[in-house]
Amino acid sequence: MSRQTERVSRGAERFVETMNRHEKFLRLFTANEPAIRAFVRNLVPSRVDADDVLQEVAIVLWNKFDEFRFDGDFRTWAYGIAKFKVLSWIRDQKRDRLMLANDVVEMIATDSHHMDHRLQRQRELLEFCFQKVPLRDRELLLQAYQSDSMIQDLALSSGRTVAGFYQWLYRMRQLLQECVHRELAREASL
After folding, report:
1. pLDDT tens digit string along 164-178?
2. Is the pTM of this model over 0.85?
3. Which run of H or of E encompasses 111?
């Protein structure tokens, strides 16, 4: 193989590695971006500020992506970087306005991280409980929460009055909530 062919081959390999790295990052970032955004939003005063900080977080995540261990938790790693970017942002903003103290931000960041795990578990249990609901009722529940659905039409197709359908929705939400609480209590007792 000639040197030029070798260089082209190595260049192609690096290109493929870069593309794989880029794809892995995009998949992980887009899957976790809403949670990272919520985490940052809990720590800064406005959505605009959160957007600015999140943009900086995304840049740092990309630049440091080679340091990320794929056996680790991307969201936890991103939260750590986001916390430091928020602290840096707050330090820069203190000159302009009243801001939270760093120890308060640390406390909120820790609470937000714990809350995220708890909410994720509740979502998983809600899905588990939802699967226990009979198929027809699941379909009706999903239809009721579609943005283009008309409750009157759903009530009619289910053989209920509109008031009866709202009562049924309330009972279904209660059953799902009780199931989630039962499962959480069962897990806590283990």
Report:
1. 999 999 999 999 999
2. no
3. helix 102-132
Range 87-123 burial, b when 16+ CB lie within 10 A, else e: bebbeeeeeeeebbeeeebeebbeebbeebeeeeeee
Q: Find tokens 């989630």 and name the residue.
A: 180
Token digits for 144? Answer: 């009721």
pLDDT per position as a tens digit, 58-106: 999 999 988 888 777 899 899 999 999 988 888 887 765 555 667 777 7
* Residue 35 neighbours by CB distance under 10 Å: 17
Q: What is d(CA 52, CA 40) in angstroms, rounded to the nearest whole number?
A: 10
The ranges of the chain annotated as CATH 1.10.1740.10 are 1-121
CATH no., domain 1-121: 1.10.1740.10
Residues 6+ apart with CB under 8 A from 152: 162
